[in-house]
Amino acid sequence: MTDFQKKSDTFVSLRTISFGFALIIFVVSLIFLKPYFSKKTVSKENDKNSPIKSIEDCKKISFQELSSKLINDSGNSFEVVDIREEKKFEEEHIIGSKNIPIEKNISDFSFFEENKTYIIVTENSQTEKDICKIFPSEKKKKIYILASGFANWKKNLQPTISAGNPYSSTDQSKISYINSEELKKIIDEKKTSIYIMDVREKNLFLSGHLKGAENIDLKDLEKSRHSIPLGKRIIVYDDSGILAFQAGVRLFDMGFLNVFTFSEGLNVWKQKGFEIVK
Length: 278
Prior knowledge:
278 residues, Oxidized Rhodanese, domain 1, five-stranded parallel beta sheet, 10 helices, 42% helix, elongated
């Protein structure tokens, strides 16, 4: 047998062995991967039957787009719904947003109005994927989800509003105070450059208030922000000063920088015998 024939026979033998080895690997792989392919097939079948095929079924709005809408739109055509837990919402939220925590079954849409678009605020990009699944398909055309949630909004230094914590040095830095003697002098001088805001509930306002004061309940402050004059010095008060402090912080967060909080409150004003009107 020539060297050529020996090499040829060796090559054929090696090719046969290699083919057999490859066939064994293929069979073994098929056995081990069968469950995986079966799972994928079932998953695809389930996807066909599911009304939610992907996160793309929920329309998204970027933080830039929402910021523009908040600046240029009075809010009559849309509403921002923050579905984070109540405590987190109170600590900080997007200006003008409404809090409907997810645990209160937001999917029943008891808040829904047909003529409005709703922008849903989640905590982050992970929670937005879960939220998409709860909305019925017929409502989705009126719903947008803020891309990457509140975390991304804050990360990009977009304006937020806090409840107003008297023990927070940050919130204290937002407040300028005025005492009863200073306020009385301003009222007596009848200055037209002053806007006095009573942030108590309406029934308390009607029972007696400062002369010339306008009533905006603290809980309605954000949605009433467009009616507050920008070119005037704003003086905020309540009975004891706590609500006025919270209002002062929120006004600062909304961009009203010429705000003074009546620290003593209406109770002290009355004790000093100063004028109250009804």
